[in-house]
Predict the structure.
Amino acid sequence: MKKLTKIVAVVCVLSMMAALFAGCSSSKGDAIVFGTNAEFPPFEYVTSNGVIDNYDGIDMAIAKQICEDNSVTPQINNMEFDSLLIALENGQIDAVISGMTITEERKKSVDFSNPYYTATQVMIVKEDSDITCAADMADKRIVVIQGYTGEICVQEMGYDFQSFKKGTEAVLELVNGKCDVVVIDSATADKYVKDNEGIKIVTDDTAFEAEEYGIAVKKGNTELLNKINATVDRMVSDGTVSELSVKYSEAE
């Protein structure tokens, strides 16, 4: 009887320990961990006083609202853009919010929220540049950002290009005369042109199609996706996303 009592006691202790450790390991239950690449103003960038820790921008404001709506804490994991979907698949993060374009290829491996922003690719050039359309890039020194839609577009056009990991580095190449054109998303281009003298934006609607941004979750994570969509749909319909776009695009 004593032996049985000891066994029962041991089982109880082990069960309590298992429950304790389970509670400790499920810290993400009180938070949504968003993966981002904070090199994409006005959507995400590092600052001294952001809406989530040191991270600010349109996407960060949306991420914060999603968490507030669900009474959880937002956590940001800043990484290389090319690593985001891998981290999502591996369970390092719960969702990707990083100005990510919804594409059929990406939808094979992840589920996307409803779109919250529509953008297009543009060209940033020097003010005295002779580039007036995408075809003019044929013999130019082209710079793109690794993993971004601009890289895909230029690649599909068959042009040679150089990839940088950060938009700031790409634009600096242009400002310093080390390249002729940077291909990048329109909203981010607006920000860079505002912050740097001597450069301008060239558009070509015949070469670059409009694209939609969405928040990615692991395939089949319907519960989280529904929560995200509830916030995104409301923020789009009531004009909040448009207000954020104006606010962050005009910010110094």
Q: What stands out?
A: Residues 2-25 form the longest helix (24 residues). Residues 31 and 72 are 5 Å apart (CA to CA). Residues 1-27 have pLDDT under 50 and may be disordered.
